[in-house]
Design brief:
The protein is of the alpha/beta class. It is built from five helices and four strands.
Length: 165
Amino acid sequence: MKESKYTEIRKKIREILFSETGIVIGIGNPDRADDGAGILVVQYWKQKVSPSRSICFFLDTECSIESPVMDHLEDPLIQTFLFVDASDFGGIPGEIVLLSEKEIEKIVSPLSTHKVPLDFLFSLIQSKKKNAFLLGIQPGSLEFWGDMTEAVQNTVAMLKGWIDQ
């Protein structure tokens, strides 16, 4: 994977991670092959960012996706929500995209696996004059109890490395 292809995405992600006004939410199910990628990335980032930073991760097996949003939506310090998730946007496995609230509708299916669709949460966040982004990782497999594909493993490693540089 050509990391230089993602220079602008990397810059925006680092801006959010090292600000004091952002929250990062990893979404996924680690029991479904590549679907756990967002969680792995955010768990790593959380270990590397100062504890005083507002960063969290989310496992969809423990609570609903809207919980971390609702918990921080009225917080005046939080201005940006970054979701990291395996997302089918029609790319090649392991490819990434960074989508804003204006672009999220391009990939959100009405048959979303999330109890509350991301486009609805993005609209809610935007209604509070805050920013929302999705760092989408194109999955290669969502097989239950399957292994993460090599392409997505490589992307996870690349994204983990972004915080160390």
